[in-house]
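idk why but the lab printer keeps eating my pages so im just putting this in chat instead. protein + adenosine-5'-triphosphate:
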Amino acid sequence: MLSVAGLEVAYGDAPALWDASLEIGEGELVSVVGPNGAGKTTLVNAIARLLPVRRGKLLLDGADAAPLTPREMCERGVAIIPEGRRLFVSMTVEENIDMGCYRSQARRFRAQGLERVYAMFPRLNQRRRQQAGTLSGGEQQMLAIARALMARPRLLLIDEPSLGLAPAIVQQVFETIRGIHAEGVSILLIEQNAAQALAIAERAYVLEGGRTIASGKPKELLAEPHIRDAYLGGNKEK
Amino acid sequence: MPSATLLGQSVLSGIFAGGLYALLGLGLSLSWRFLRVINLAHFGFIFLAAYMIYQLAGVWGLSPFAAMLLVVPCLFLLGVALQALFLRFSINEFGSLLVTFGILTITEAAIQWIWTADFRRLETPYGTASYRVGELFVPVAEALTFAVAVTLSISVWALLRFTYIGKAIRASADDPDMAAAFGVRGHGLALLLSGAVAATAGIAGTFIALIATLAPAQIFSWIGVIFAVVILGGLGNPFGILAAGLLIGVSEAVTMALTAPSWAPLVSFSLLILILVLRPGRI
Ligand SMILES: Nc1ncnc2c1ncn2[C@@H]1O[C@H](COP(=O)(O)OP(=O)(O)OP(=O)(O)O)[C@@H](O)[C@H]1O
Ligand SMILES: [Mg+2]
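predcted complex ->
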């Protein structure tokens, strides 16, 4: 479904990504792990077309996606749950959800979608008229997930969903991601928390210094001492 | 101490002035909040519209409202062109202040060149008519202006609150990238909004032409008080603008009645400073 090869992305003159490659098959849950500053967020934002691609291949369903706008990417069924959630903070919970189904193909299914996300996150239903910026961290993450689901994505880009959340909430978030995947949505999951990510991913990539350095089934990656020490060692504190 | 009637009449004229302030400030507030353009050219556009109304209605004999139907679309296009300029050159908020000041100066010069520096007055039956309600005189043009200001504020509020376009505008102001990632066409929306803002200048200009005697130099005399109203009202908040307009309008009028007219300009800025001190972070 998505294919990235030798991708290079820069902020001004400073390259943040210079040789990133990955494949996501139809309905697959693929994870990318890597240290701070490896370029994971850069990769996700480039796929969502929020950053210009300098070099390399970005294919969606076999077609070149590099020239697409974020809106066109959204129309082709790609939705993002960005790092730091990036909600529309001055708008209410329900307005944020509405923005998820902004494009007309998704808007037709608004009622259905609302029912689904409120069933998934009853807390959001209770707080539907509250300003998104005043929600707790966990609630904000739920809202970011709900917003993305309203777009009825085929491919969901999820960037560090556990960032800053209490362990109990983190469990709930990963359960939710598992559930979404079970419904057939392809998922690219970025995580600092490699143990969690590798536990639910079907395949994973390791990104370091802007470059994909390893890939494989989680079990295979965990078997490599270098990777196990770097990501699953004692000290993963941010 | 002035009589109750005189005070009542002052409050009424303050309310009408407040409505006019809101009408003039609405576009400025929207463009500042949602386009990040501090649009000084708005004042130029308002007077350009007023002079166009004067030309169409006062010189060429159209009815003022037919003239408005011609002028408002022209202003809309002007607003679209202005935003196209901003998008083309990616001008930031501070830059916008300088650029729009330049456009304001050019507009004023153009008005002076076309219509000279002489006073121009649009004579209409509305301009001088008034009704007597109890002890008070209610001037028709001012009352109409007030009604339009209220209607427009409510409409803008409802559009921003309830329509997808309105939500997209607000979402883009919060996080333009995320709005785009969910399908919002940011540039198209900005052009539309800038056009709508200039269209409100067209409406405001129509009522300025009905109420006031026009002279190019007056353009600058409005800037201070309207900025006070816009900041006091909270950016992008149509009801806030209305409330702030009324607060300043009535305070000015009552101050004038109780003291001397020369004190009035002090009112808006004292209120502004007071509120910025008591409630910082309004911009
Ligand atoms: N807006 C930006 N402007 C300039 N440089 C940036 C910007 N965003 C990121 N970078 C740089 O690009 C590199 C990759 O950053 P990125 O945010 O993609 O890393 P990451 O893997 O997501 O890290 P983290 O785990 O902390 O989220 C870093 O060196 C960072 O300093
Ligand atoms: Mg990141």
